[in-house]
Protein backbone atom coordinates (compact mmCIF):
# COMPACT_ATOMS: atom_id res chain seq x y z
CA UNK A 1 0.00 0.00 0.00
CA UNK A 2 2.90 2.40 0.57
CA UNK A 3 3.99 2.12 -3.07
CA UNK A 4 0.76 3.79 -4.11
CA UNK A 5 1.70 7.02 -2.33
CA UNK A 6 5.31 7.23 -3.52
CA UNK A 7 4.52 8.70 -6.97
CA UNK A 8 2.33 11.37 -5.35
CA UNK A 9 5.03 12.29 -2.83
CA UNK A 10 7.65 12.34 -5.57
CA UNK A 11 5.50 14.56 -7.80
CA UNK A 12 4.87 16.96 -4.89
CA UNK A 13 8.59 17.15 -4.12
CA UNK A 14 9.50 17.81 -7.76
CA UNK A 15 6.81 20.49 -8.15
CA UNK A 16 7.83 22.16 -4.88
CA UNK A 17 11.47 22.22 -5.98
CA UNK A 18 10.54 23.64 -9.37
CA UNK A 19 8.57 26.45 -7.72
CA UNK A 20 11.51 27.35 -5.49
CA UNK A 21 14.02 27.23 -8.33
CA UNK A 22 11.96 29.40 -10.68
CA UNK A 23 11.31 32.27 -8.28
CA UNK A 24 13.60 34.45 -10.39
CA UNK A 25 15.53 37.55 -9.40
CA UNK A 26 13.82 40.70 -8.15
CA UNK A 27 15.89 42.75 -10.60
CA UNK A 28 14.61 41.22 -13.83
CA UNK A 29 13.86 43.42 -16.81
CA UNK A 30 11.00 42.06 -18.88
CA UNK A 31 9.00 43.55 -21.73
CA UNK A 32 5.41 44.01 -20.56
CA UNK A 33 2.75 45.54 -22.79
CA UNK A 34 5.42 46.61 -25.28
CA UNK A 35 7.62 48.51 -22.79
CA UNK A 36 10.54 47.37 -20.68
CA UNK A 37 9.93 47.63 -16.95
CA UNK A 38 12.74 47.49 -14.39
CA UNK A 39 11.69 45.80 -11.16
CA UNK A 40 13.07 47.54 -8.10
CA UNK A 41 14.88 45.68 -5.34
CA UNK A 42 12.04 46.32 -2.90
CA UNK A 43 9.31 44.89 -5.14
CA UNK A 44 7.03 42.26 -3.61
CA UNK A 45 6.62 38.78 -5.08
CA UNK A 46 2.90 38.09 -5.65
CA UNK A 47 2.30 34.82 -7.51
CA UNK A 48 3.32 32.56 -10.40
CA UNK A 49 1.41 31.98 -13.64
CA UNK A 50 1.54 29.39 -16.40
CA UNK A 51 1.68 32.00 -19.17
CA UNK A 52 2.87 35.55 -19.73
CA UNK A 53 -0.65 36.63 -20.72
CA UNK A 54 -2.10 35.47 -17.37
CA UNK A 55 0.66 37.28 -15.47
CA UNK A 56 0.00 40.50 -17.39
CA UNK A 57 -3.75 40.18 -16.80
CA UNK A 58 -3.21 39.79 -13.05
CA UNK A 59 -0.70 42.65 -12.93
CA UNK A 60 -2.93 45.03 -14.86
CA UNK A 61 -5.93 43.97 -12.77
CA UNK A 62 -4.05 44.99 -9.63
CA UNK A 63 -3.31 48.41 -11.12
CA UNK A 64 -6.96 48.83 -12.19
CA UNK A 65 -8.12 48.00 -8.64
CA UNK A 66 -5.54 50.33 -7.08
CA UNK A 67 -3.54 47.59 -5.32
CA UNK A 68 -0.18 48.65 -6.82
CA UNK A 69 1.31 51.24 -9.14
CA UNK A 70 3.43 49.03 -11.40
CA UNK A 71 4.17 45.36 -11.94
CA UNK A 72 6.75 43.16 -13.62
CA UNK A 73 6.29 39.69 -15.08
CA UNK A 74 9.62 37.85 -14.95
CA UNK A 75 10.16 34.60 -16.80
CA UNK A 76 11.30 31.59 -14.81
CA UNK A 77 12.28 28.15 -16.11
CA UNK A 78 8.67 26.96 -16.07
CA UNK A 79 6.42 29.75 -14.80
CA UNK A 80 5.97 33.54 -15.08
CA UNK A 81 6.35 35.45 -11.79
CA UNK A 82 4.45 38.60 -10.82
CA UNK A 83 6.34 41.30 -8.87
CA UNK A 84 4.67 44.53 -7.74
CA UNK A 85 5.69 47.73 -5.98
CA UNK A 86 3.38 47.18 -2.97
From TrEMBL:
Keyword Signal attributed: yes
Protein name as catalogued: Uncharacterized protein
Signal sequence residues: 1-28
Organism: Streptosporangium jomthongense
Keyword entries, A-Z: Signal
